[in-house]
Amino acid sequence: DTGVSQNPRHKITKRGQNVTFRCDPISEHNRLYWYRQTLGQGPEFLTYFQNEAQLEKSRLLSDRFSAERPKGSFSTLEIQRTEQGDSAMYLCASSSGTSYQETQYFGPGTRLLVL
Amino acid sequence: GDSVTQMEGPVTLSEEAFLTINCTYTATGYPSLFWYVQYPGEGLQLLLKATKADDKGSNKGFEATYRKETTSFHLEKGSVQVSDSAVYFCALSEAGGFKTIFGAGTRLFVKA
């Protein structure tokens, strides 16, 4: 399988706990994106990496959220001190090329439930 | 800022009916426009895209034309099937940037 993979697929945690999600992009893709999708809404952009550099962050990404892509391959998204409002589907996507017209390929997502 | 507005669902159609899902956008510059589909239990998949005015994207019998004058990118299919039941998202990618902005999605139910 050469698609985008995400782990875990589901995570249930208690409020106040820290959680970390992993995304493995398509191997030759140099761009990686994180989105958040709440029920009944479209995905909302969180952040974007080109290789290992984090180039853009949404205001949605509070200081409790941190994302890394240390070697320009897989990425992690950590949420510290989780709140019930963090419950959502977290989507990762990857793309290659140099243009904003390029296609982003999405992973299956990690569904987070904060109790 | 840039935004995408699409018709609210759910949309319920009988098999072989004609489908239109309206999408309008607000953007500076010349964005690229996309339709993504999310089938039950699956991830988002690109359905079609158009990168400049008057381009028509097409795939699997679905079509959408980039209309700059009306800032629209309506999705159409001449004859829907039960297997088309899914949530459809209109999206744009900002000119010069890489962030993709999505509409809220339109759920389509097709009855046999």
Molecular structure report:
The complex is a heterodimer of chains A (115) and B (112). Chain A is mostly beta strands. In chain A, 0% of the residues lie in helices and 49% in strands. Chain A contains no helices and eleven strands. In chain A, strands 2, 4, 5, 6, 9, 10 and 11 form a seven-stranded mixed β-sheet that branches. The radius of gyration of chain A is 13 Å and the shape is globular. Chain B is mostly beta strands and 112 residues long. Chain B is built from no helices and twelve strands. Chain B has strands at residues 3-6, 11-14, 19-21, 23-26, 32-38, 44-50, 56-59, 62-65, 75-77, 86-93, 100-102, 106-111. In chain B, strands 2, 5, 6, 10, 11 and 12 form a six-stranded mixed β-sheet that branches. In chain B, strands 3-9-8-7 form a four-stranded antiparallel β-sheet, with no helix packed on it. A two-stranded antiparallel sheet of chain B has the order 1-4. The radius of gyration of chain B is 13 Å and the shape is globular. At the A-B interface, strand 4, strand 5, strand 9 and strand 10 of A face strand 5, strand 6, strand 10 and strand 11 of B.
Summarize the structure.
Chain A is mainly β and 115 residues long. Chain A has strands spanning 5-7, 10-13, 19-24, 31-37, 44-50, 53-57, 65-68, 75-79, 88-95, 105-106, 110-114.
